[in-house]
Amino acid sequence: MKVESITLHRVGMPLVRPFETSFGRETERVVLLVHLVTDVGEGWGECVAGKTPGYSSEYVEGCAHVIEHHLAPLLFRAPHVRAADLERLFAPVVGHRMAKAALEAAVLDAELRASGISFAHYLGAVRTEVDCGVSVGISPSIDELLTEVQGYVDAGYRRIKLKIKPGWDFEPVRRVRDLLGPDAALQVDANTAYTREDIAHLSRLDDSGLLLIEQPFDEEDIASHVVLAQAIETPVCLDESIVSVGVAIDAIDRGATSIVNIKPGRVGGYLPAVAIHDACRARGIPVWCGGMLETGIGRAMNVALAALPGFTLPGDTSASDRYYAEDLTEPFVLDDGRLAVPTGPGSGVTVRTELVREWGLQPPVLLT
Ligand SMILES: CC(=O)N[C@@H](Cc1ccc2ccccc2c1)C(=O)O
Ligand SMILES: [Mg+2]
Fold this sequence. Notes:
The structure is a single chain. The protein folds into two domains: about 120 residues, Enolase-like, domain 1; about 220 residues, Enolase-like C-terminal domain (TIM Barrel). Helix 5 packs parallel to helix 6. The chain is globular. By secondary structure, it is of the alpha/beta class. It is built from 13 helices and 13 strands. The longest helix has 19 residues. The strands form three sheets. It has a seven-stranded parallel β-sheet. A four-stranded antiparallel β-sheet has the order 3-2-1-13. The chain has a two-stranded antiparallel sheet with strand order 4-12. N-acetyl naphthylalanine (NPQ) binds next to strand 1.
């Protein structure tokens, strides 16, 4: 297909409650959306980068800039574009995986809508709904944390994930474990907040029967995760470190991780995400779908990915109302702790363009 225009939308989505992690506190998600017009129809993609480079080196304005000045020209110059060609087409631009992923999602959406194929079918889904977990931020108090967690348990979530950091780890984990009982699925995510010196400290988490401990150390510090994995019982899961299938294989083969959080935005798109899924499956490594507070646009595509065979653990594919009172698509509603995989062409959801316009933080930018 021929890409005729790309429009960049910056949208401000107020969060239903603040989301605090070891790297900051968000009350609004500023999200960059890519709207693609081609000769065979339209597609939408969602960039997972945050407003600031606090979680990753990529951020909204950086992604918008590299799309406008370096990636979009490659798309406009190509006589015929398919999602499968994008890795080669975008090769002249090094890195910028979240920016590339947003464009790949939009190209996939347009391509698949035109051919009447769903994301789930194209990616190789084997399930019609996916088990959902929820990511719980750092709270002002233990009592507020327990109230929030109870709300998610009542909503039916099949797994609880707690953000931790030095000074907020054992006590909240122990109190939530007491609340949930010994058999409930519970895990933690440190977002790189610890160092190798904390290994003895972290080994005390083994008493809490956790499914995994996610990304305790710096994303480039594979070696310390190897040392930790040899020192504790709790499985080590990597998130920020896993930027490509090559790094995934290296980390697995070195014993740094035995469970992988796959985020299409972090790895350059849905096709690289499937490659990581396949590599993990070939090595007996279970994977789950991470979340970046996506709107229904990215959420629809993530739910389709989470239906692939190797996604055997509940992901952060939570319902729309975990983050937003109103979504940019029809809302994703939890049913018995699961979300249904969209079946329509492309992402299968309809973008509420009137909301994109109303919540736009600045006029959209049209690229041709
Ligand atoms: C659901 C979840 O915990 N997501 C990330 C952390 C995260 C949370 C909030 C974010 C807001 C803006 C940009 C990036 C963000 C990343 C994680 O798994 O590590
Ligand atoms: Mg994480």
